[in-house]
Amino acid sequence: MANNIDWGNLSFGYFKTDFNVRSYFKNGKWGELETTDSETINIHMAATCLHYGQEAFEGLKAFRGKDNKIRIFRWEENWKRMLNSAKGVMMAEVPQELFKKAIFTAVKLNSKYVPPMESGAALYIRPLLVGTGEQVGVKAATEYLFLVFVTPVGPYFKEGFKPVSIQIVKDCDRAAPLGTGNIKVGGNYAASLKSLGRAHNEGFSTVLYLDAKEKKYIDEAGPANFFAIKGKKYITPESTSILPSITNMSLVELAKDMGLQVERRKVQLEELSEFDEVGACGTAAVISPIKKIVDRETGKEYVYCKDGKAGIISTKLYDKLRAIQYGEEPDKYGWVSVVEE
Ligand SMILES: *Cc1c(COP(=O)(O)O)cnc(C)c1O
Question: Nearest residue CA, atom 3 of ligand 1?
Answer without folding.
Answer: 224
